[in-house]
Write a structure and sequence with these properties.
- There is one protein chain.
- The protein has 2 domains: 51 residues, no CATH class; 55 residues.
- The protein contains 4 helices and 2 strands.
- Strands 1-2 form a two-stranded antiparallel ribbon.
- Strand 1 and strand 2 form a beta hairpin.
- It is rod-shaped, with a radius of gyration of 37 Å.
């Protein structure tokens, strides 16, 4: 299928709708909320490329972030990335909770061992028949 050209009437309508709903912001064109090259094309009955050509000539490229500047593939990738990041954050949060529980359990075990070691050291000092704690000297040797 060949290139479709806008009629003179369609070109004038494109220019009118651009004047109403698009403004120049520095070197860029910015549409009002809800307006795009495609919406103008749909209203007039021409192709998006017809609108794009006139808008590009009269107003310039669209500023990033406007409806036509981000294509659907890029939006899909962004949505998938956001969803993946959300799942990753949730997974990290679950892992952090598990690790916090393990740390608490280890702290309790360590406290119990300290009590046992302290009780064992005191018993060794009081009862000369018990072996000295590890690293100590046996009977002054």
């Amino acid at each position: 299928m060949g290139k479709q050209y806008a009629t003179r009437h369609q070109q004038r309508r494109i220019e009118e709708l651009l004047q109403e709903h698009c403004r120049k912001d520095g070197a860029f064109a910015v549409y009002e909320e809800g307006w795009s090259d495609q919406r103008i094309a749909d209203q007039i009955g021409c192709t998006r490329q017809n609108v794009h050509s006139i808008r590009l000539e009269d107003y310039g490229n669209l500023r990033r972030g406007t409806a036509d500047a981000i294509d659907e593939a890029a939006l899909r990738v962004l949505r998938e990335t956001i969803e993946f990041q959300g799942k990753t954050i949730e997974s990290v949060g679950n892992r952090a909770q598990l690790l916090a529980t393990r740390i608490t359990n280890l702290e309790h075990d360590l406290a119990a061992l300290r009590v046992q070691v302290a009780a064992g050291s005191a018993a060794s000092v009081l009862d000369p028949t018990l072996p000295w704690p590890v690293g100590g000297e046996a009977n002054g040797q």
